[in-house]
Structures are given as structure tokens and as C-alpha cells.
Amino acid sequence: MAEKIIILDFGSQYTQLIARRVRELNVYCEIHPFSKIPAFDDNVKGLILSGSPCSVRQEENPDIDLDALVGKVPILGVCYGAQLIAHKLGGEILPSEIREYGRANLSQVDQHSELMKEVNIGSQVWMSHGDTILEVPAGLKVIASTDSVRVAAFQSTEHPMWGIQFHPEVTHSDDGKKLLRNFVVHICECSQDWTPDIFVEATVEGLKERLGDDQVVLGLSGGVDSSVAAMLIHKAIGKNLHCIFVDNGLLRKNEYEDVLESYKGMGLNVKGVNASQEFYAALAGLTDPEDKRKAIGRVFIEVFDKEAHAIQNVKWLGQGTIYPDVIESVSVNGPSVTIKSHHNVGGLPEKMKMKVVEPLNTLFKDEVRRVGRTLEIDESILGRHPFPGPGLGIRILGDVTAEKVRVLQEVDHFFIKGLKDAGLYDEVWQAGAMLLPVQSVGVMGDERTYESVVALRAVASVDGMTADWCHLPYDFLAKVSNDIINRVKGVNRVVYDISSKPPATIEWE
Ligand SMILES: Nc1ncnc2c1ncn2[C@@H]1O[C@H](COP(=O)(O)OP(=O)(O)OP(=O)(O)O)[C@@H](O)[C@H]1O
Ligand SMILES: O=c1[nH]c(=O)c2[nH+]cn([C@@H]3O[C@H](COP(=O)(O)O)[C@@H](O)[C@H]3O)c2[nH]1
Ligand SMILES: NC(=O)CC[C@H](N)C(=O)O
Ligand SMILES: [Mg+2]
């Protein structure tokens, strides 16, 4: 197994970013809740303590047994992590006179400190704190300051341990990447050999061992995650992998045919299963988003189960689950509230007697794409916008009917084709259209119309966890709106969604 850095999460919104930055250095790392510290083996090379919305001054603040960790591996505290170290060693932490959010500049830097090597005086750093470390206790010394914060960074004089008040993981901290490199590469001595090639090699070996001669059924969606997962498992067990692509009647226009076509020549054993009627029957009369999601999830499992029985002796269900799915379900304070029931998480029904194999559950989406490139998967699959498993079913607000699906397929087609024709598709992280349960009055050729309203949504994101709406050119929106209203029967009004996530989500249901 690869060398790794462990990040203990105290609930900061930036914890995932720290992980991304470390991984960009070709060093593997894992995030664990502070309350569930894993056993350290020889592969663990360093420890990072994240920020937190909490304060060390509050009672029952998130806490760890630092003494048990000090000296084992180098430790870096970031923001709350730094405050926690200073606090536990007897330092004074107080609410700052001015809360510092946003940019600051380092006015003093001890460049002899290994952590601060090549970090320049004047360098911009990003702050986000209300507490401040007033004085460092004995055993710690200050190695960087800003005009308003004397203890912007410190180092232990006795142990390999550092703390920084600012956030090196955000792109707005100029030398943040240098600082993390100093920690991970120079201090923790990680060898930077965690590359997509190595990942593929190690994962395929691991899968061979785990799966042996077993049969595996995998839900293949035409999307990035399940395609990459399928190729990895295929490399390990070849023909024992049975890929099932389900037409749930909620796919995009021509998607069933196009996806089956795109898998030709990849060597995968892919079976298309048309189960539209089962999905429509399960959705009939349902209007609540969670009820709809659960019904769709249930039918997916039924279809996979039926296919597995037809093959016989199938022990595993393969899935394209990725790291953010996993992190979201193990938040700091126990399981997070359910915003939406994703159809593929939450485990399998007892009676299925299948185990789950998820080779991508430690990777972020962009890393999955990089692994896909190593596996020489076609760019048309790797570059595809994410598309939710419940498909148009959660983009048709209210009850779902075959006719509404047909209308939305047409709308979606004009929007996506428009993006491609205008060269905008690759600049948008995800785009789609929602059919609203609203009718509006219009006038077409002097006649009154009373028809449906659709909302277009296009977002910029890195991993779908947060997103902003795309500022698509007005001319483009005008053309797409025109195309849709003139050519899709049943729609007489188009609106554009300008909500970010949070507080909205990407899908409307
Ligand atoms: N139509 C489908 N047929 C079979 N399996 C599906 C289908 N839609 C989704 N799945 C399964 O559900 C999982 C989750 O879907 P999800 O949309 O998150 O991932 P993806 O489709 O692989 O990638 P992307 O996020 O790029 O769309 C997939 O990895 C796949 O295993
Ligand atoms: O496979 C999936 N099954 C689901 O049940 C599901 N729900 C949302 N999504 C996709 O996840 C990302 C974040 O979506 P939200 O902001 O709507 O939660 C977006 O990319 C959504 O398209 C799903 N994908
Ligand atoms: N970003 C952080 O870790 C903030 C730590 C602490 N809540 C503060 O306000 O100072
Ligand atoms: Mg998908």
C-alpha cells in the first residue's frame, strides 16, 4: 500500500480541499473524523489537523489525545488545528478584536523553518477565523506573522509539530502549495509516487485477490464513474464481470442506444435491459421527491437482482461510488442529515446476499477522470457531464409520466446540443433542464397558449459538493430559449436558474 497522510477532520468546510492539495502532490491521503482516529501503521507519514467551525474556548470542543500522537509522525495544525495544539500546550486563545476573513499578508517569516522554506515575506495568505492565538506557550516558537496576527504560524521546539492560522489549501494563499509541499515532501518525506498508473496497478492487483473467480454484476450508466470502475474490474477479472445498463425510461433522448454504442470496442461484457415500464409503474402517483427517489432506487436493485439470478452464483455488486459520496455519509458529528437519498448509497437489502465492490471510493471526480485517461477510456465518456441515476425522474417536478419524459427529453436535447454547438459544453460542469409543475399563459401566432414552463440549469463546480450557476452568454440563452419554445410542443416559457449550491442544490429534487 501507498504511503499516506492522515487528515483529521474537525468539521471545516475546507477539509476536502486540503486532501485535494496533498493528492495534487502525488501523495495519497485520507480524511478521518477526529473522533475515529485510525491505527497508524508504517505507511502513515504525517498528520494534518483541519480547521473547524468550533472554538477551543467552548465547552466540549472537538478534542483529541494529542499526547498519544506527538512524536509518532510530523503534525501540522491548520487554523482550529493550530489553535488546538497551542491551547493544549497551555497557550492563550481569545476572540480576536477584529475577526479576520479573507486576505492578509505575511509581514514576518522565519525562512530557516523547514515549513516556511521559500515562503516569501509579503506573501498573501487567506484567513478565516474569529479566535486568535495571543501567546504561544513554552515549547512553541512563532515562525510567521501578519500585521494583525502575531502568531500566524508556529513550530514546536521539541517535536516535529507545526501550526498555521491561515489556510494554505485555498488557491488565494499564494505560497500555500509550497508550504504544503514543504510539509508533505520535505518534512514527512513522502516519495510522491501516487500516480494514476500506480493506482491502476495496485487496484487491479487488489481486485484480483479479493474477487478471485467470483462473478460480479455492475450497474453501468454511461457516466464517468461506473465506466472507470467497470474497466478496473474488467482488467482484474475479465469475462466474470457482467455490466448491466438499465433503461429506466428516465434517460435522455437517444441515450440508451448511444451509450450501448459507445461501449462497443471496449471489450466489456455489456447487457442493456429495458425496464422502463417497471420504473413508470413504481413512480405512478408519486409526487414527493424522496418517495420518488426511493422508488427508483428500489427498482434498480430489483433489476440488478433479477439479472444476477439469471447469471447464477453472483457474489458481488460493483458500483461507481466515489470519495465525496463516502465523506458525506461520515461527517464529523455522525451521519449528516439526509438532503437527498442518492439511489446508489445506503447499502443493499439483506436478502440479496451480495457484497459491494467499489474500487473508486477513495477518489475525487477529477482523479477518476485521470485514472480513466490512464485506462485509455474514450474522452467522450470521460468528458461527459454527470447525470444522476434517477435521471429525468428527479427533473420532472411532481408526478412522472411517459409523456412528460418525452417533453423533457426534447428540451434537454436542444439545451445540450446548443451548448455543444456553441463550444460551451466543456466549460460547464453539469447542465440540464427541469420540467416544472406550472403552466403559464403565452401567445403563439395570435393564439392563446397555456403550457408548461421549463427551467434550464448550468453549473460550475469541481466535485458537485458546492456549485455556482454559469454566466452563460445572453445571446446563447436567447437562442436556446427560442429553439425550445418553437420546437418542443407543450412548452411556452423558459427560465434560467441562478441559484448557487448551497443554499440550493444542483438537481431540483
Ligand atoms: N441507467 C443505469 N443503469 C445501470 N446502472 C446505473 C444507471 N444509472 C446509474 N447507475 C449506477 O449508479 C451509480 C451512480 O450513478 P452516478 O450517476 O453517480 O455515477 P455515474 O453515472 O457512473 O457517473 P456520473 O456521475 O458521471 O454520471 C453508477 O456508478 C452506476 O453503478
Ligand atoms: O447517481 C446519482 N444518483 C442520485 O440519486 C443523485 N442525486 C443527485 N445526483 C448528482 O449529484 C450531484 C449533486 O447533486 P445535488 O446538488 O442535487 O445533490 C449532481 O451531479 C447530481 O446530478 C445524483 N447522482
Ligand atoms: N477556520 C477555522 O478553523 C476557524 C477556527 C475557529 N472556529 C475560529 O474562528 O478561530
Ligand atoms: Mg450518472
Averaged pLDDT, please? Answer: 92
Number of strands: 18
The CATH architecture of the largest domain: 3-Layer(aba) Sandwich
* H/I helix tally: 13
Query: Could you tell me which ligands this complex binds, including any ions or cofactors?
Result: adenosine-5'-triphosphate, xanthosine-5'-monophosphate, glutamine, magnesium ion
Helical proportion, percent range:
25-40%
At the third CATH level, what is the topology name of the largest domain? Rossmann fold
Count of spatially separate domains? 3
What is the molecular shape? globular
Sheet having the most strands: 9 strands, mixed
Share in β-strands: 25-35%
Structural class label: alpha/beta
Query: What spatial order of strands do you see in the largest sheet?
Result: 2-1-3-4-9-8-7-5-6
Q: What is the CA-atom radius of gyration, in angstroms?
A: 26 Å
What's the CATH first level of the largest domain? Answer: Alpha Beta
CATH superfamily of the largest domain: HUPs
- Low-pLDDT segments: 331-336
Q: What is the terminal separation in angstroms?
A: 40 Å
Structure description:
The chain is α/β, with parallel strands linked by helices and 509 residues long. It folds into three domains: 4-187, 3-Layer(aba) Sandwich (Rossmann fold), CATH 3.40.50; 196-382, Rossmann fold, CATH 3.40.50.620; 401-496, GMP Synthetase, Chain A, domain 3 (2-Layer Sandwich). Helix content is 30%, strand content 25%. It has 13 helices and 18 strands. The protein has helices at residues 15-24, 80-88, 176-187, 196-211, 224-237, 255-262, 276-283, 289-311, 323-329, 365-374, 379-382, 402-421, 474-487, and strands at 4-9, 28-33, 44-49, 75-78, 92-109, 124-135, 140-146, 153-156, 161-164, 215-219, 241-247, 270-274, 314-318, 355-357, 430-444, 447-460, 468-469, 491-496. The strands form three sheets. Strands 2-1-3-4-9-8-7-5-6 form a nine-stranded mixed β-sheet, sandwiched between helices. A five-stranded parallel β-sheet has the order 12-11-10-13-14, with helices on both faces. Strands 15, 16, 17 and 18 form a four-stranded mixed β-sheet that branches. A hairpin with a 6-residue loop joins strand 7 (140-146) and strand 8 (153-156). Helix 4 packs across helix 10, helix 5 (224-237) crosses helix 10 (365-374) and helix 12 (402-421) packs antiparallel against helix 13. The longest helix has 23 residues, at 289-311. The model is unreliable at 331-336 (pLDDT under 50). The chain binds adenosine-5'-triphosphate (ATP), xanthosine-5'-monophosphate, glutamine and magnesium ion (MG). Magnesium ion binds next to loops. Pfam families: GATase, GMP_synt_C, NAD_synthase. The active site is at residues 79, 167, 169. Homodimer. It catalyses: XMP + L-glutamine + ATP + H2O = GMP + L-glutamate + AMP + diphosphate + 2 H(+). InterPro entries: Class_I_gatase-like, GATASE, GMP_synth_C, GMP_synth_GATase, GMP_synthase, GMPS_ATP_PPase_dom, NAD/GMP_synthase, Rossmann-like_a/b/a_fold.
